[in-house]
Amino acid sequence: MEFLLLGSLEARRAGTLLELGGPRRRAVLTMLLLHANEAVSVAQLTDAAWDSPPVSPESNLRTYVAGLRKVLGDRLRTRPGHGYELVVEPGELDLDVFEDQFRAGESALIEGAAEAAADHFGRALALWRGVPTAELNAGPLLRAELTRIQERRLTAVERFAKASLELGRFDDVIDRLRLETALHPLREELWAQLMIALDRSGRRGEALEAYAAARRHVVEQVGVEPGARLRQLQQVVLESRVPSPAALNAHRQLPMDIAEFTGRESELRQLCAPGPQTTVVISAIEGMAGVGKTKLAVRAAHQLVQRYPDVQLWADLHGFDADELPADPSAVLESFLRLLGVSGAQIPESLEERAALYRDRLAGKRALVLLDNAAGEDQVLPLLPGGATCMVLITSRRTLLRLDGVRSLFLDVFTATEALALLSRIAGEDRVQADREAAERIAELCGHLPIAVALAAKRLARRPQWTMRDLLTRLERGGGLGARGVFDLSYQALPENQRRLFRLLGLHPGEDVTAESAAALAGLTAFEAGDLLETLLDEHLLQQHTPGRYSLHDLLRAYAVEQVTAAEPPPARALARRRVLDWYVNTAWQSARRLNPQRKLEIAAPDPAVHPRSFADRDAALLWCDTERANLVAAVRDAAEHDLPEHSWSLAQCLWDFFNLRKHWADWIDTHGIALAAARSTGDRAAEGRMLITLGIALREVRRHDEAIEHTQQALAIFRATGDRSRQEPALNNLGIAYMVQGRVDEALACYEQSAEIARELGNAHTEAVLLNNIGLLHADAGRFDVALARYLRALEIRQEIKDPYSEAILLNNIGEAHRGLLDFAEAASVVDRALVVFREIGDLYGQAESLDNLGLALDGLGDRRGAEKCWLESVALFEELGEPKADEVRGRL
């Protein structure tokens, strides 16, 4: 006999699956197995099977036991006066095997044998197939028992991670811990071990991101800060930084490897064969959609990591996505450069300069770059490293003839042998061998296409009562050939709630989906959507490159679009699209409130079925924006294209602070240009003016000054025509900044003065303080330090009234510069030291670097050369860590 508890409940005799009956009978069997070879009382079985027991549960239990005895024979015995006992031989129950391995692992850890411990805990965890008996209607006692063994499993995960960390096997545990923290976000020890693994493998930035995610979950769900261990780990990671101009921040980006990867042995050998020693190695995997190009590339990349350990970068180029434009090489380079430690402010604007900086950052490093779904050579060429220490893996549906030195590998559909191997891998070798002829015919009906074979195999794996012949009959009855036939079979067999969510995903903007955004799309709770997404993942209808984020294969996305168009009437599709865009707009609004509490944003209320996310702090808001960036940009475009212009411009204005902070110039200009056109299409003058202002700021930041001034002047004209004084104020301020950048001082000063007058008239203290600071800067640049100081001091008075520590620190630093200009070095040092304290309190590294430089200049003026040197050394370190060129200027002072 074989009894399986660590997943869905199963029992087998000589490999044959036994029919165990309904939920209550299975609950009784589960309780007996949990106490195998022990007497289990009627009272215990009652508490295991019912929340509210019937009046006389004994007769029901006798019926259930009788049914089980027909299946299990004399294994199930009655113990008069004590209840019932199930006899289980050693090795028959997977839970017993798990416990044996667990105890062996514990002993090995105590003895300091980390290798043996990792082996035992790894074997223990390999026995788990899912959530134990999730299909049961369990009573309180059984729920408690099942919770106990799941806790035991999590302890095994932690022990496995501990042993693997001692052995330095960081990659072994990182993927596992990412998944476990996504499933159990309140278990702080899992987060702690993930932080340790990431930090020790050189991924400090990701370790800090893990802390931010852990803190967000604990604060939002429990309402307290993380425990001392997590907080101490965060401090250790922060203090262990070693500033370096070329420090890599988040440079290991490969997607998760695929556990069910099968076949392709000769192709893998070809891809992993050493290439030329004098030039970059370029391998291109070419073939039709669904043939497994990405899976092969990811498997090869993971096998090549030891040869290219320094950097691994990955990008989906969307070359053949019907709902998404091919990725702009310039945008991909921006993403890569940020991952390689280049700050947004230091990323050049032109494609050529970005490509040159990218090649420079990878020079001499053993780097692997995976470019998935390439549209053609022109898209790929700027993304190629220049050195012989690098390798590039490319997947495409086209032949890339114009890439010099490329090694092309054409990937065909599976051979019959490989298709059967995949069927066996997923559905079980015994089932394939039981009817090999039917299995071969199934593979033929799937066209030997890997995605179709995997879906068919998963159908069998999820239905242990089916034979190969059952699946074959259904495929032949459907008349489908290739992927479409299997898609139909998988889709039609789903319950309606799963079918509905799957087809609605065809309307989702962007690259991937989360439980929260899917919930908005379908009008569900995030918990309900998460369960459905996991089910669709189990059915192979979704992919998951990152825990908690799901995506559709190109073929399945097209199929989902087809199904939603056929099954949902236009009003239903419009409602779903509006709901998900409501979620993005309102969640972005919540993030904007954290990123800039002073900015006032007006947006429409969401649909009642939509539950926007909120954020505990600024870090959590920024992390969400970073993670969702591609979807947010796609959502702005999607709203404009589907007659939801207000969503388009509302979302664009909510993203302004994020784009400004992270210096995502291209996204900023793209989204605000789309939103501006949307506002103009409806004749909404107020929205048009707002978009003109923010678009003008972006154009100014990329030094397109004439265009920036033109856009801002247009905005000012609109607000004057409509009599909107509150909007004239920021328009004049931004016009003044644009003039100041061009050296048009008098025009800038006139704009600032007009804007300040309106701010005083409206009682807008925050804006008045901003303008006084800008006016002070103009006077300081002209050498009028006494006039500048007066403006700064008045602005500081206002700032202290409205409690804005960031702006207050900037003003204190400017006041210190004015005192230096007046040769009052002692007062300058005192004031700048106050600025430095505030910048440190709020964690602003750039502000700290600026203040330390300023403080060094003041101390140097006082003759304190040693104090100045100390300040400048710390300032250089911070500027270098941020990738700021001002580090060279401060180094010159040293």
UniProtKB/TrEMBL annotation:
GO molecular-function terms, A-Z: ADP binding; DNA binding
UniProt keyword annotations, A-Z: DNA-binding, TPR repeat, Transcription, Transcription regulation
InterPro entries the UniProt entry points to: AfsR-DnrI-RedD_regulator, BTAD, NB-ARC, OmpR/PhoB-type_DNA-bd, P-loop_NTPase, Sig_transdc_resp-reg_C-effctor, TPR-like_helical_dom_sf, TPR_rpt
An individual GO BP term: regulation of DNA-templated transcription
Pfam families assigned: BTAD, NB-ARC, TPR_12, Trans_reg_C
TPR repeat copies, ranges: 729-762, 769-802
DNA-binding region: 1-88
OmpR/PhoB-type domain residues: 1-88
Family: Belongs to the AfsR/DnrI/RedD regulatory family.
PANTHER family: TRANSCRIPTIONAL REGULATOR REDD, TRANSCRIPTIONAL REGULATOR REDD-RELATED
Name under which the protein is recorded: DNA-binding transcriptional activator of the SARP family
Lineage: Bacteria, Bacillati, Actinomycetota, Actinomycetes, Pseudonocardiales
